[in-house]
Design goal:
Order of helices and strands: HHEHHEEHH
Structural class: mainly alpha
Strand content: 5-15%
Number of helices: 6
Shape: globular
Number of strands: 3
Radius of gyration: 18 Å
Oligomer: single chain
């Protein structure tokens, strides 16, 4: 009996990671196609758009985006190199060693448009009738 339960847990875990990978790949493809944005770049813009004053320190973005500090710094640098004007880097007045990355109005417009596409993809993948139940289950897992 124990092996069946363990096998089911492993199978469920593999199914969950497979679903996540497929959804992430679809989001990545649509964001690239429509906005020339990677999924991590979208996350960066999204988290900045939701932050107070639309700015965060690079250290704060690390855990939010799921990258190391150097990877976040490279991500922001690549974004700036695109020359689209979506982000600005500014020194922190209280601590000159810290650097804020802030969202510009251009960046807000870009994330607003991209958010529509992300919601469309997620609505396609997760049937509305099952979404509330799925979100409730995920929220319970997050609290554990």
């Amino acid at each position: 009996m124990k092996n069946n339960l363990e096998d089911e847990l492993i199978t469920s875990w593999l199914s969950l990671t497979h679903i996540q990978m497929n959804v992430a790949n679809e989001l990545e493809a649509r964001l690239q196609e429509n906005y020339q944005l990677s999924l991590k770049e979208f996350y960066l813009l999204l988290f900045l758009s939701e932050a107070p004053e639309q700015k965060l320190k690079l250290q704060q973005l690390e855990s939010m985006v799921g990258l190391s500090q150097s990877a976040v710094s490279r991500l922001v640098s690549r974004f700036e190199a695109k020359g689209c004007g979506a982000l600005e880097r500014k020194s922190c007045d209280a601590d000159r060693r810290s650097i804020y990355t802030s969202l510009t109005p251009i960046g807000q417009s870009k994330v607003d448009r991209a958010r529509v596409t992300v919601n469309e993809v997620l609505a396609e993948v997760f049937p509305q009738s099952e979404t509330a139940q799925l979100l409730e289950q995920l929220a319970r897992l997050k609290q554990q």
